[in-house]
């Protein structure tokens, strides 16, 4: 919870998310191109060839939406297409967005090159700020400070945005003790801290367990007439109180948080998670029902169910969690296996491995294709039981659907344990099939070769070829390897030939 709040606070953006993403057919063509290797420029060219009109405002909205979804490569492609066609003249603000996207996708050197090649009239506070943001993102203290001094000399540096970048810099590199100094300098130079500035400073004290200083900054923030207090601030402070065991102070802050949350779904999720940390099931369910009544026109999202299920599981309320999972299955628009995975993990942690497998197979029986993670969770459960045969079967299920989940990687500890068991109990074909099924996801390992060697020895097969491959893959034959090889004499009197005579 703390880390999610922390990263929410430090999230840096130059945009606001578009609310109605389906209003243009052009966007509907671009939106499904999830793979960064799919070039958006060809879609835009085709759109124009078909007679479609391209408006600058529409392209800007598309770029904003793509950035909000962290699809930076596609956002940059749209921006480059705009720039290359000559129909649209970039303003300094658009140059700043373009520079930021270059920094995110191609690195700092490319961003600096783009900035240096800008015309003098485009080197404004916005483009200087975008380059500073690149330095901050990379954690480059010296470059950031030098750049800020340059901005100040040009009259660009005395803004809340610039100081917020410096606050982020020290937060990102873990030098939290420097944040109050930057905050004090900001005020001394007549720059009013905004909500973001106050939150980073409050967070710096909370992270260091200096709750007295944290409270002083919070009181100052609340007293500022130009500041509108937001739920996220009270949520953050509540979290620090909970960590410190100050339940009464946490409850006061949580009440203030609830007063500010309005219809914000993320806010309710934070409240539910925080009350879960306090062990209050009644408050969790009250807030769940309250959020539904206040957000009648906003259907519950998968992330909302992930939060409530995780909170109930944390309190050991599995029956209540099962009811809500059934509610979600009836109402969900997109079946996201991260939701049932929460219960799978809970069952496995409670030793209810067979129940977890039965639940997963029931979901599969309804025509749903799970992610490899789902099977991997159950496999890990059987591993801890231990029931190696069942762990092996579940891991095979996970590996059989890995092609549809390119980013998935099996946990090395699970793979190693199963390989070790297979080496002692499986056939050569089983070991080879299992090893080959994940070799595209993981580098060849010592454990893989050891399993193959043990299986070959048990069935009286030669292992010299495996040893040569092992050497070619630069995997040393250590004491464990030698111990396995020494068993050849017991299993096979003629290990070089594989004959059993």
UniProtKB/TrEMBL annotation:
Transmembrane segments: none annotated. Residues 484-501 have a biased composition (Polar residues). Residues 477-501 are annotated as: Disordered. InterPro entries: PPR_rpt, TPR-like_helical_dom_sf. Pfam families: PPR, PPR_2. GO terms for molecular function: mRNA binding. Keywords: Repeat. One of its GO terms (cellular component) is mitochondrion. PPR repeats lie at residues 124-158, 159-193, 336-370. Belongs to the PPR family. P subfamily. This is Pentatricopeptide repeat-containing protein.
